[in-house]
Amino acid sequence: MSIAKLRKQGSLCPVVLTILVSEAKKLDMTTEYIVKTDDHGTITLIPKVDNLFKNAEPGEYY
User: Fold this and answer.
1) 19, 30, 52, 53: least buried by Cβ within 10 Å?
2) Using an 8 Å Cβ cutoff, are 29 and 19 in contact?
3) Strand partners for 21
4) Which residues make beta-bridge pairs with 8?
């Protein structure tokens, strides 16, 4: 476990979460992530995937 810091960046005030390289080594730097937060302050990064049903045939996922 390590400590991460939040900071504002630029005039539009996006928030940046800085994670140590040792903690981020399991993350793919070319992947976009969906950010989910809960009421307790937990931040979850979920890899964004393309629409899995986009090219599906009717009844394929039943």
Assistant:
1) 30
2) no
3) none
4) 15
CA–chain centroid gap for 37, Å, is 10
d(CA 59, CA 62): 5
Task: List pLDDT tens digits, range 19-62.
Answer: 888 888 888 889 999 999 999 989 998 999 888 778 888 887 77
Residue 52 pLDDT = 78
Helix, strand, or coil (residue 44): strand
| In the chain, where the domains are located | 5-47
Q: Would you state the pLDDT for residue 58?
A: 82
Confirm if 17 and 4 have CB atoms less than 8 A apart: yes
